[in-house]
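# step 3/5: fold
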Amino acid sequence: MEQILPFEKPLIELRAKIDELNSVTTEANIDFSEEIAHLETKLAKLQDEIYSNLEAWDRVQIARHQQRPTSLDYIHAIFDEFIELHGDRNYGDDEALIGGIASIDGQAVTIVGHQRGKATKENIRRNFGMPHPEGYRKALRLMKQAEKFNRPVICFVDTKGAYPGKAAEERGQSEAIARNLVEMAGLTVPVISIVIGEGGSGGALGISVANQIYMLENSTFSVISPEGAASILWKDASLAKTAAEAMRITAPNLKESEVIDDVIQEIPGGAHKNQDEQAVYVAAAIRKGLAELNQLSKDELVEQRYAKFRKIGSFA
């Protein structure tokens, strides 16, 4: 059953009315073409009005949509000859964070990304896209391998956060993320990170220390979920909508604050409406980023990345 977001209900009702009139036209041979044309015009106008005035909480809901394209969806749509690699060579393989090698336009790249599921069984297997320490260590292993063979690194960010369970803490969750931050800062190959859904807390930052960070138009990037922030600030998680607005966690907000480099346009209604069409926009952003970063030397890549993160949060 398709998930319907609250702000989409007027559109659903109007589409149902159009379908009903089309059905009557076919079955009863009554001409409702004028009424249908009027409703379709109204639908297009309403759709444009709703999707061009989305609030922060609306974008949070789109980012969390159960059918939103995942890292693997984009990988298979954009790249050629993807070979998934497994394990951190220390503890095990974490299916919440996937990685491997592939090519785009003939250039070899390394890809890492959070991977959630679209159904209950897959979500459980993927731990709802919340990696354990071995996930981040696997990502780092692949990124260091990419540096050795001079391959750019492409990261897909889509997690509520790193898994906060006891076992993850026992295996060094904080150290694993911190190690990634340090090592990614010094990588001598181009690094591009794309937030495709939720970018939550250190779990997202663990693969986001990049030369260029892009966000899909309806994705989010934040230090904590709106519900978590509302619980801390006002002792009331039901104020998540207010918190989402105050936190400025949407792509347009973060582009304005220069936390990210660019916003990737989404098709009307969100990426889940047509993942193949959305992949075209994501691929264009990756190609543009690689074309720019491939011109820089190893030292310039490190310096550019350092300067980028040093200026975040500065003020006059």
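# step 4/5: annotate
The first strand starts at residue 80 and ends at 84.
# step 5/5: archive (pending)
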